[in-house]
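ok so I'm stuck.
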Amino acid sequence: MRRVGVARDGRFNAGSASFPRRSSLIWVRVDGSLQTWSGTDLLEQSLKLAAALRALGVRPGDRVAGLLGRRPESLTIASATWRLGALFVPLFSGFGSEAVRVRLEDAGVGVLVTDAANVDNAIAGATENVRVLSLDPDPPEGVTDLEGILRGATSVPETRMCDAHDPATIMYTSGTTGKPKGCVIAHLGLITMWPFVTYCLGLHDDGALFSTADTGWSFGLYTTGFAPLTLGFSRVMVEGGFDPVVWWKALQETGAQHLATAPTGLRQLAIAGIDAIGMRPDRLEGITTAGEPLTGEVSEWFERNLSVPVQDSYGLSETGMVLGNLRPEGAPPAADGSMGSALPGFEVSLIAEDGTLLLIGSKESGRIAIRDNGFLLGQGYWGRQSLWEGRVQDGWWVTEDLATRDSDGRFWYVGRNDDMIVTAGYNVGPSDVEGAIVRHRQINDAAVVGEPDDRKGHVVVAHIVASDQEQDDDRLLQEVRALVGSAIGWHAAPRRLVRHDALPRTESGKLRRSDLRPE
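replied:
not stuck anymore, here's the structure
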């Protein structure tokens, strides 16, 4: 902990975390060019942005949001905010305007930093109390060009030293009911991810990690963002949306040693095949997945064609990464389909329906529970602490994910105990999607569930009650997809519609989504 800047008395600011000399950010631009940002480059950019934010009046405790594409500033704006003792609010670049607005309002954000690719959703989602800044020149009316502020902010503010457990980030995670919950992450969150990087990714020497995760999620910002950089490794970041050919080229041209992505990304890489670029990523040694269950055919393809192992892992924004297949010699052997075992420093168990802990090797499934060791990624829910406390049972943080554990201590994913839909690695709260769908003038009621899909793991399916039974289903689906895509994001847009005369509900009116899921 001392090497990253934590003082003996526990004082620490994540924004001042030091990057070893060999760490760098390798940025693959949309035009195919490569830019390498050294640790010094990242530090200088963070200091400039901190000066600009201070010039705008940002003070300790204020909230600053970032709605940015995959670019270096998606990291440096976070560290700049932390330096001031303010709280950073990451926003997924795929969010629609309504998803942006809900999070800005809930966190009480005063400043939103965006770029040309996201500025329209930023404008539509921001209230009059939010000042919108653009990193790119010539922004639309009502948006401030940040470059001008950067030129005028010459005085670098002193970094505010905080307690390591003081809040640094509000990371929103979708829920199955109600508004999304803001997971409060402390400054020590950078350190929480070190065991995962060290023992699961297995990077060595001057190894580079190619992570496809958006920095709007904890896996992109912390797990595969700041954590490997502070440990002295490089992070490869590819600008723009998914393109299998671009990804294959990035693996080869950057010499990435490890790939971290969702199984959906691997499926589409396999479909494109390495022949798409006529070369093999010859430095790639391993692949780690997270965010959705890993199927056997995906890992088999990479083993067969590249002789590269694919291993699963598990974590949440609330807890950080806590399960993984350990790569050093002497670790429990990996098994296809297993999420691995508890990472060093974490104690993970399963809790049965009656609240008792299940023994290792029990065939019964239980909810994954993590012992609170003082270093969980999350510290609570923003403005909703009672919900967080409701998750804690006798010192265990209890999830809604079901798993079994074999006699070797490896965990195997079974499913979710709630209604969350995991599609292409993204968590989709059904209530948010349903709220968008029923705004359609011809839809009276809606329920959303996930259905298995070979490529995405699951896809969103909307069950509806429509007033017009004559309208063409294909046209109605496109209109519904447009509504959801605009309000929440295209990752949450339904792939199929199913009509009903009435939806199944309890006597109190609560949807019985379980009745709509495929058997």
